[in-house]
Design brief:
By secondary structure, the protein is of the alpha+beta class. It has a single domain, classed as Beta Complex (Beta-clip-like). Helices cover 17% and strands 34% of the residues. The chain is built from two helices and ten strands. It has a five-stranded mixed β-sheet, with no helix packed on it. Strands 5-6-4-9-8 form a five-stranded antiparallel β-sheet, with no helix packed on it. It is elongated, with a radius of gyration of 24 Å. The termini are far apart. Bound molecules: S-adenosylmethionine. S-adenosylmethionine (SAM) binds next to β3 and β7. GO terms for molecular function: methyltransferase activity. This is SET domain-containing protein-lysine N-methyltransferase. Pfam families: SET.
Length: 155
């Protein structure tokens, strides 16, 4: 026997279906990208994660001010060695907080950095070398030594 459905049952079923589709498409929790100020972290074009412009950035603008902690090279080992900056002496290393340690390398960099020592401690200041479009990945130049001392090659 073929079951029959009333018009009300069909309408209720269709409304439930439409609500489910709507909820799935528009209300589901999207994985938010991490962003702060001018920087958003996303999948890099060259290696793992990278730092991207969250908005258009003008040449010489500061991209990120990173509170930094100077430590000795004895405090740093393993993979962390690939993330820290040179410090104020040969045996010193600078741990940059915020997004400072997530910028990848390019021989044609669009950002560079300098160190500032203020009353509250060291900061690593990352600034734009040229105008940067929203969505562009930002790179600084790690320098030839960085690659030769690790026996790695860059993209
Ligand atoms: C300071 S971290 C940069 C963030 C890193 N991509 C991540 O996902 O955490 C340095 C690491 O990224 C890699 N890297 C950075 N720039 C690269 C490039 N142009 N080509 C290949 N690897 C790169 C280095 O090998 C190193 O292990």
């Amino acid at each position: 026997m073929i079951p029959t459905f009333s018009l009300e049952a069909i309408v209720i079923f269709a409304a439930g279906l439409a609500t489910g589709v709507f909820a799935t498409l528009f209300l589901r929790k999207k994985t938010p990208k991490v962003s702060r100020g001018a920087v958003v972290i996303d999948a890099s074009k060259v290696a793992g994660r990278g730092a991207f412009a969250h908005k258009p950035i003008k040449k010489d603008d500061i991209v990120e001010r990173c509170p930094a902690l100077e430590v000795t090279d004895k405090d740093i080992g393993g993979e962390l060695l690939n993330y820290v900056f040179y410090g104020s002496a040969e045996n010193k290393r600078l741990v940059a907080m915020g997004y400072g340690m997530l910028f990848n390398h390019s021989p044609q960099p669009n950002v560079a950095y300098y160190r500032e020592d203020g009353p509250t401690g060291a900061e690593l200041i990352i600034y734009a070398l040229r105008d940067i479009r929203k969505g562009e990945e930002m790179y600084y130049n790690y320098g030839d030594d960085w690659w030769s001392t690790r026996g790695e090659t860059c993209e």
